[in-house]
Amino acid sequence: MECKGIGLHSGANVTLRILPAAAGTGIVFRRSDLDGFEIEAIGRNVARVSYATSLQKKGVLISTTEHLLSAFIGIGLDNAVVELDNLELPILDGSAKPFVDMVLQAGLRQQRKKRTYLRIRREIEVREGNKFIGAYPASGYAVAYKINFAPPIGAQAFEIDLSQDLYRKELAAARTFGFLSEEQAMKNMGLIRGASEANVIVLTANGVKNGPLRYEDEFVRHKVLDLIGDLALLGKQIIGRIVADRAGHAMHTALVSRLLKDRSLWEETTEVIQPEDPAESAALPTQPAREI
Predict the structure, then answer these.
(1) What CA–CA distance (Å, rounded) separates 279 from 115?
(2) Does residue 190 come out as left (phi exceeding 0), alpha (psi in the -120 to 50 range) or beta?
């Protein structure tokens, strides 16, 4: 499977391929332009986390990973190699939907090794001023998020139970967004060089410049999408409830770091989330790459 696009922040052209991987591999990024250098999608490799989540290992960078990792969690893809020929993943339409569609076109296959979950045993909370994120024990995987931006967004809240297979319908198509008034300042910082109305919801003082929205509350849904992608850096799907209020990538990955540092907060388990879920890990079928 292959797609081509442009990096949201770098503006660089990039080709991305998603390849099958053996059970237990997890998600591994591979820089085909740097002799196949690999970076595992795990918390210890987190680099800059201001406007996107990046991974770095031995000086090699992979940027803006959150949408793809969110898509993989949302559809239950546990093992894959993601090959790209530049430093930043393509933004495509600004959501996770193109990645979801690409994988599902190829199909998933169950692997014999049982899926290992990370079950939250004790609550943990991270606070910074009026920003907050916490993880709590629960029987499935639920995420609740609140945001409060300047008009025309304002306050929004959304919660989803991911163990009910709602990701594709409720989250995948939610796009990233930005305020037109901040465009030049961000470009001066070396950001959003690849942004356009084709891949970002553009907001002005009068409302959405390039509507219509895909969901009435698309902004908070995209924040949930981002959070799921950042939490994928735990290396396992979660059994627990995550609650966030005005958090962002830095706080998302701070929670990942805190969890990984304290093993008393969680345990590994192969217990199924749903009775009909065989809890076997999933990977792409072994077949030639497909283009989209």
Answers:
(1) 5
(2) left
- Of the candidates 22, 10, 23, the one whose C-alpha atom is nearest the C-alpha of residue 84 is 10
Helix, coil or strand: residue 79: strand
Q: At what angle do helices 218-231 and 249-261 cross, to 10 degrees?
A: 30
Taken in order 193, 196, 199, 205, the sign of the CA dihedral is: positive
Please tell me the distance from the alpha carbon of residue 54 to that of residue 68, in angstroms, as a whole number: 12
d(CA 216, CA 103): 27
Q: Which of 281, 260, 283 is nearest to 117 (CA)?
A: 281
Longest dimension (CA), the chain: 54
Map out the domains of the chain with their CATH numbers. 2-283 (3.30.1700.10)
Q: Is the pLDDT of residue 277 over 70?
A: no
* Helix (H), strand (E) at residue 260: helix 249-261
Instruction: Enter the pTM of the model.
Output: 0.92
pLDDT (average), residues 118-130: 97
Q: 189 - beta bridge partners? A: none
Catalytic residue from among 9, 222, 249, 252: 249
* pLDDT above 70 coverage of the chain, percent: 92
Is 252 assigned a catalytic role?
no
**189-219 pLDDT, tens digit each:** 999 999 999 999 999 999 999 999 999 999 9
**Two tokens, residue 54:** 């990046």
Q: Give 156's strand partners.
A: 147
Residue 123 and residue 241 in contact, taking contact as beta carbons nearer than 8 Å: no
Please report which confidence band the pLDDT of residue 271 belongs to, taking 50, 70 and 90 as the band edges: confident
